[in-house]
Amino acid sequence: MTPPEISAGLAGIALLVGGYWWVKMQRVLPIERQVLRARGAAQDLADLARELLSSHRLPSDPRLLMDIIHQGAQRLTQRIPGICLMVWRRDSAGTELCYRTDAPQEAESLPAELPEAAWDGVFADPQGSQRIVLPSPEAAPLFDNLARLGHRMICLHAWGRPEGLHGVVLGGGLNKEADESERICQAIEVLASYFTSVTDIAGSLWDLYQTRQRLEGGLSAMHQVASAITAHPDHPVDTLSAIVSIIAKALEADLCAFLLYDDKAGELVTQVGAYGLSGDEGSLYRLPITNDKSSSIRVFLTGMPFVTGDAQSDPRVISRYAKLWRCHSLIVVPLSLRDRRIGVMRVGSFKKDYFTSDHLQLLQLIAEEAVVLVESALLTRKLAEANQKLSEINKLKDEFVSTASHEFKTPLTTVKGFLTVLLQGEAGPLTEQQRRFLKISQSATDRLTALVSDLLDLSRLEAGVSMDFVPVSLAQLAEECRHDHEPQARARAVHMEVSCPPSLPQVRGDAKWLRQLLDNLISNALKFTPAGGTVAILGEEMGDVVRVTVKDTGVGINAEDQQRIFDKFYRANNRDLTNPPGTGLGLAIVKFIIDKHEGRVWVDSEPGKGSNFHFILPLAKKGEAVEEVV
Fold first, then answer.
1. Which candidate, 64, 236, 383, 402, has a CA 20 to 30 Å from the CA of 327?
2. For 76-87, what is each residue's pLDDT tens digit?
């Protein structure tokens, strides 16, 4: 092949390759341009949302909301030049066009009314939006004018809540491409969402403002009422008297009284200390709950407040009491606590038609707060009486337990001594059956002796036994306990070990009681650990405290039992697995001792995997002297 022919072939190939890539780029470039435009539109919407939020003000008054809507609409028109934007608002007072911007070079103004069908359609849509292609089949001047001006599609989007202040945003553009129209619709949605959030805040702030206005009249009174409760916590009569006096002065009333329900008698009873009432027979009257002629009874039964401007001539009021009190204007409000009513509050005035709806609202507000204080005052009295009775009962119980335990101890010691003498054969030879019976009696005596001992210890702890707090080595106590319990552990084929570092610091405590604490925990662990198991005593320093753990490989404790394991006389539900002896007082004594030492005790356990009883005690201070603490 000649050189010219080779050159011509290469030129043809280059032309084919170039043509291929030219066709390829013609397909790719429009797609790339669309992607870039979509990214730019999304970024523009994000910028618009940030711009609106950055200018977000808190409208303390609903009247300021219109200024915020106007400013938000202006920001959108500045970001999308040429957009046709209209914003309506609607509330109980009617509908108003609060913003409109015509597209440039549009000579005709647009009508101010949005068709009702458009309102209904946009709020009926789940997304709160609607797109209308123009010209619209609906005969509406606004849509006809928009179509005549060259608009081909408009977007409508709802804002606010239909039950309150709400409205519609309309947006459109002249001769816009499809993607540009989509951008306008998305921008309208962002603006409507912004209006909705601002409207919600405006409504909430206005409600709070009105609530504050209502509260201002009662806050001072309620503060005085709370102060009265604090000043007389144990004297409910003085408290009620102070409350009614404060309420009467706040409302400038002449009479005020609490009538509380006596469930035993079935009556509403006027409480002592009523404001403006004398000590005559009519001031402390009782109303049977069946007397429906009384306004107080009706209010108590129905929970609906009662107001009258002339009680002396109103047939709904028992006139003789109104005349006795010289009362004309009267308000009765219920005292409701959660789902029940405890009574009513009556407020009266010597003037006719004195009380207004504002007085009623204020009194209801005060009643809602005062009812808690009233019941608290009465409960305080009942609790004080109940506590006094419980204290007397506990004292009698402690005295009985202490006396009974002491009385039991002496004969038990005698019985135990004679049983020992008999078993040792000092009173003569015994048959096997006699020996077996005596050992059973000795075992029962030991258990009874342990119970008496525990009861005496518990009684002393509850009575506030004095303790000598000195530096105590828990490591040494643990070794002594291991030595004393070793025979019992060998008898049960249980391995015992102590792991306390030599540097374990001393704690502040009473050595005798801490020794008993460890004895109880170790004895408890041995009872619930089967043969072949292990009981370990571990000690470690943890900052300002020492933690000791008595760990066993026994039957474990159920989760529901762990909550009550330190209660007096409580025994775990799975104790039948090992059937151990015991009184259910050992761990209760442990808890008392720990509390006396300002420590903490707890357990973690899992059935079948053993138990870990932990307790912590504060370290002894250097140079701490012997101290007796009761």
1. 236
2. 888 887 788 889
Q: What is the pLDDT of residue 279?
A: 55
Residues 6+ apart with CB under 8 A from 122: 128, 129, 130, 156, 157, 158, 168
The pTM (predicted TM-score) of the whole model is 0.40
CA distances 342 to 294, 368, 546, Å, are: 17, 12, 53
Query: In angstroms, rounded to a whole number, what is the distance separating the alpha carbons of residues 452 and 397?
Result: 15
- Residues 466-487: pLDDT tens digits? 788 899 999 999 999 999 889 8
pLDDT value for 435: 77
Q: In sequence order, what are the residues at sequence separation of 6 or more whose Cβ sits closer than 8 angstroms to the Cβ of residue 50?
A: none
Rounded-to-integer distance, Cα 85 and Cα 185, Å:
11
Give CATH for domain 465-629. Answer: 3.30.565.10
> Which residue ranges make up each domain of the chain?
55-206, 230-382, 465-629
Burial of 430 (0-12, 13-18, 19+ CB in 10 A): middle
Superfamily covering domain 230-382: GAF domain (3.30.450.40)
- Count other C-beta atoms under 10 Å from residue 449's C-beta: 16
Percent of the chain with pLDDT over 90: 8
pLDDT digits 0-9 by tens, 393-412: 777 766 666 666 666 666 76
Q: Residue 45 pLDDT more than 60?
A: no
CATH, range 55-206: 3.30.450.40
Q: Residue 479 and residue 501: Cα distance in Å, rounded?
A: 12
Strand partners, 470: 509
SS3 content of the chain, % helix, strand, coil (to 5): 50, 20, 30
To the nearest 10°, the Cα dihedral for 69, 71, 73, 74?
160
**What's the rounded Cα separation, in Å, for the pair 161 and 112?**
22
DSSP category for residue 523: H
CA-based nearest residue to 517, from 445, 613, 449, 447: 613
Structure tokens at 417: 């001594």
Relative to beta strand 83-91, strand 94-101 is antiparallel
The residue ranking higher by pLDDT, 589 or 450, is 589
- Measured distance CA(267)–CA(82) in Å, rounded: 77
Between CA 256 and CA 261, with CA 259 as vertex, the angle to 5 degrees is 165
Is 230-382 the same fold as 55-206? yes
Summarised one tens digit per residue, pLDDT across range 217-265 is 555 555 665 565 555 555 555 667 777 877 787 788 888 888 888 888 8
What whole-number distance in Å separates Cα of residue 82 and Cα of residue 89? 23
